[in-house]
Target: DUF4331 domain-containing protein
Amino acid sequence: MSNHFTGLSLGPPLGDQRLDLCDLYAFQSPADASRTVLIMNANPNADALHPDAIYRLAVDNNGDLRNDIAFSFVFSTPEDGRQTVDVFLAVGDDAESPYAVGEKIFEAVEVSFGESANVVQSDGYMFAAGARSDAFFFDFDGIKNLFDTTGGRNFTAPHLGGESPWTGVDSNTSANVFSIAIELPTAELAPDPDLRIWGRCSLNRDGELLHVDRAGHPSVSSFFNTDDTKEEYNASEPVHDRERWIGQFIHLMGHTGGYTDDEAIAAIDTEGTLPDMLTFDPAKPAKYPNGRTFRDDVIDYRLAFLTKGDCPPSGLAPHADTLDVFPYLGNPHPTS
Model:
């Protein structure tokens, strides 16, 4: 749930966990390197998603920061513990629409809330949605030790001297998440040469479509936003990111790592932090910041980025319950 703790309030969009986007992954299929896996996780309660929301995975394949391909996921109203989902594929100009438009490639797919995932296939696509084990690993108490967050301050002024902040305890070993997973031939994504991928959650409310959350680079929204800016950030689009947000990012990096303005800009450009889209070149092995896999320690990476390499690693290991077969995330943990 690398994007779950956005700002200090730690709250989900509009106070609704169903609208909370947690993590985004992109990697080659372990069984066939010519296929790409895209996974977007939401709702750390791992229960049904919002029936009035549109969940979207969008792909820019030519570097203009505009959506060229968009998968939209629309969920039914839950009844008797069951829920279904329709999947739409939009390409070209249709991919820019915030609504669920395009070809319906899956209809009324049963969401899985039990141990076994419901995997469906059609025309080279594989899809599954439902509760799965969360692969994200992090030492949350260690993060709180590292940053002085008293008095309503955000993630600034890391305590890097003296005793290690890390507890050695993974805060997420028994967590579940609602996962949306799709796999398809990479050729259909037409990378030129790479892909820029981002997720969005929008809510239909009172006749208006509200953009309430977004996902791209892991933990960027969490650490770079303040409580005052996160709603605007979540509602914005990647094409405007650099113009709107680079000043805030530079300012924060000056506090967390002693970066000069020029050093901060260089680090942002090297990583591709802005726009906040996950970059993936399928011709190269997936490892963040080229895509993202379940083994990538994105919190250690982000803290090293913020502190200019001064933050020691937490020493945590990836979760061992991920799968080699679709939908790749492990079976959900039992809930009491």
Q: What stands out?
A: The helical segments are 140-146, 186-189, 220-224, 230-235, 241-257, 261-271, 298-306.
